[in-house]
Amino acid sequence: MIGAIWAQGHDRAIGVDGTIPWHVPEDFAFFKKTTLGHPVIMGRTTWESLNPRYRPLPGRRNIVVTTNTHYDAPGAHIVSGISEAIQEALTHDRVAWVIGGERLYRSALPFVDIIAVTFLDVSIAGADAFAPEIPHAWRCTAQNPECGWHTSSTGVRYRFSVYVRPGFDAPGII
Ligand SMILES: NC(=O)c1ccc[n+]([C@@H]2O[C@H](COP(=O)([O-])OP(=O)(O)OC[C@H]3O[C@@H](n4cnc5c(N)ncnc54)[C@H](OP(=O)(O)O)[C@@H]3O)[C@@H](O)[C@H]2O)c1
User: In sequence order, what are the residues at sequence separation of 6 or more whose Cβ sits closer than 8 angstroms to the Cβ of residue 77?
Assistant: First the structure.
């Protein structure tokens, strides 16, 4: 199973100037709980946006996609495209997560079975990275008991949703 996971503000905004423009610890916790133990696939820009103290993301095989075959990402596995990334991930696990950013989500979408989205009730001025539109045919499951609006300790309203590709059935993955 290939999953994609992201958090988006209004208008599908996911980033500004190479960073994530909010602080929602509950979403970090959800991200960690969901991806821990599984390979994570990310674009080179997202890798560079991680705090060097926390990369590679611990407890996960970090796979970085870049066209630069000489790129040095200590602790991560470098691949040159999304197909290679998926192949690499699935030789180690039956589940892998695509964790961003915009360019990687777009190229990964045809391969993705499930999308975990955190909707944030925030407008992001100057957003320059956006999540792809989720195809209408995908169904939003309400299996996750954490569905529904919550308010973060930082004051941001947020809601978790899970979308599943038509015909894909994987109960219990999230
Ligand atoms: N809100 C969220 O949940 C979330 C999650 C992750 C990231 N973000 C944000 O998203 C923004 C980054 O997004 P982005 O689109 O600029 O960058 P990105 O997708 O993280 O990385 C783009 C780079 O990755 C490589 N790449 C991506 N797809 C590729 C493909 N299919 N084949 C070969 N190489 C590929 C290329 O590297 P080379 O140029 O080296 O060839 C490309 O320039 C940041 O603001 C980040 O904070 C938000």
Answer: 61, 62, 63, 64, 88
